[in-house]
Amino acid sequence: MAKIYTRTGDKGTTGLIGGTRISKGDLQVDCYGTLDEVNAHLGLLISQLKEIIDQPFTTLTTTQKHLFDIGAVLALDPEKADKFKLPMISSTEITNLELEIDEMNFHLPKMTHFILPGGHQVVAQAHILRAVTRKAERLTVAFVSHADAEAGSFAADAYPLILKYLNRLSDYFFVLSRYIGYLLNIPENKWIPEK
């Protein structure tokens, strides 16, 4: 049985897909590492939802797979992209998120105030997902603007879809937080600034 530890990262470097070694503190590693964080939080949310709501949230398990696909693309050495055929998201996945958002929004009251995270543990977990996904998006924007010059046609095809998907995914998690509250009959915590 293969050992889980390789010791190759003991000096603070990691290998990209393609074999190139870079610092674990590199922006590229921060991008796909933060996506891993999103995926871990998503696993927790899925587990929590199964315990309290008798409704399939198949979009969430599909999203976990998409996050792995995106993580693989972001873990690829852009200069060696032509040598690998990785699974890619498409505009269909973005459209599917939009349809899900619209379907949940149909059941929700009109928003009149900003909403504070909380009210229930699962609602708060969906807000954590929204926030960490926004962080992943910001890091990816910074990485993409830096990597575009090196990545050529690969960047033109892959990176814009990834940015769109992450932007829409954070919207999805926000609406999902509201929808979970609606299903559980939890009042929203409205942010009402003091005069």
TrEMBL record:
Pathway: Cofactor biosynthesis; adenosylcobalamin biosynthesis; adenosylcobalamin from cob(II)yrinate a,c-diamide: step 2/7. Keywords: ATP-binding, Cobalamin biosynthesis, Nucleotide-binding, Transferase. One of its GO terms (biological process) is cobalamin biosynthetic process. It catalyses: 2 cob(II)alamin + reduced [electron-transfer flavoprotein] + 2 ATP = 2 adenosylcob(III)alamin + 2 triphosphate + oxidized [electron-transfer flavoprotein] + 3 H(+); 2 cob(II)yrinate a,c diamide + reduced [electron-transfer flavoprotein] + 2 ATP = 2 adenosylcob(III)yrinate a,c-diamide + 2 triphosphate + oxidized [electron-transfer flavoprotein] + 3 H(+). SUPFAM superfamilies: Cobalamin adenosyltransferase-like. Pfam families: Cob_adeno_trans (PF01923). One of its GO terms (molecular function) is corrinoid adenosyltransferase activity. InterPro entries: CblAdoTrfase-like, CblAdoTrfase-like_sf, PduO-typ. Gene3D superfamilies: Cobalamin adenosyltransferase-like. It comes from the Bacteria. The keyword Repeat does not apply. Its EC number is 2.5.1.17. Coiled coil: none annotated. Residues 4-180 form the Cobalamin adenosyltransferase-like domain. Belongs to the Cob(I)alamin adenosyltransferase family. NCBIfam families: PduO_Nterm (TIGR00636). This is Corrinoid adenosyltransferase. It comes from Arachidicoccus rhizosphaerae. The lineage of its organism: Bacteria, Pseudomonadati, Bacteroidota, Chitinophagia, Chitinophagales.
